Structures are given as C-alpha cells and as structure tokens.
Amino acid sequence: MTTRQLAPRTLPRGARVLLLDDDDLLRRSLSRMLRRYGHSVTDLGSPIAVLKLLTEEDFDVIISDVLMPEMSGLDLLAELKRRHSGVPVILLSGYSPITHGEEAAALGAFSYLKKPIAPELLHAQVEEAAARRAVGRAHRGPRCLRRGSVAPEDDAPRRPSNALPGSP
Length: 168
What we know:
CATH class: Alpha Beta
Largest sheet: 5 strands, parallel
CATH topology: Rossmann fold
Shape: globular
CATH architecture: 3-Layer(aba) Sandwich
Structural class: alpha/beta
Radius of gyration: 19 Å
Order of helices and strands: EHEHEHEHEH
C-alpha cells in the first residue's frame, strides 16, 4: 500500500476572507497563502477600513491581528460582534498573554492563534469557520426573510404554508 499526498481540501468555492494586519509583509504573505488554498481574500491594514468595508460587503471569515495602532483586535472583535454577529473572527497574535486568549474567547472569537502560524493550521481554521458560517446562514434563510424582518417588496403578514384557508 502506498501513501499519497492529498491536495488541500477546500470549500467548493473557497471562503470570502477579510484579512486585517498592520504588518504589510505578513498580511501579503498570509493573503497569498490563503489564495493558494482557493480562498478569495481582501486584505487591509486598518481596523477602521475594515469597519467601513463591512458596511458594503459580506465575508465568510474575518482574520485580524490583535495588536494594532488604531484599535486592538480585541476592541475590533467586540465591535464586529455587535455589528456583524454571525461572522466568525480568527485572531492572530505574536504577543499572546493568557488574558488576551481568555478575553477573545469571552468576546466570541472563533479562535485565537499565535504567530508565526503554520499555513495548514490557518487554512483549517478558515475552512471550519466558513463551514459554520454557511450552516448558520442555511438555518436563518435569506437575509430579507429572517425572523422579525419583512421582505422589502411585500410587508403583508405571512401565513404559514400549512395554515387552513380562511385562518389568519
């Protein structure tokens, strides 16, 4: 029996990843690596730019550095969870005291990884996070039909499909 090398497993279309790190060289390196795994990557160097972009675009996974000059990754995570609660956030840090990891978990980070990071580990985390995001989206349904919202073209109350004729 021979052992063969398996190609990296990717989601059918790859994940839409938003990558944030103030270190340009590391950001570009991680971006190239994730693209080789089949992911679509948008990379930015500013947490403020990330918050602005998220008002216009949707992503499957957000990867962020923890220590940045404008805003810490932990503060960004708190803001992301407040505004975009369904997007999994993976935090990366070269300096990782235990309190950062605990705070990241309490704030709802998908994972907290220490730099330097093995490409296979980051890819696996992105795939797992994107898969969970996809399952969450499937359970919630289309944006306009989520519980408590109304389809823009029809604001009439909806009747369950199994309702009897004439019932409300």
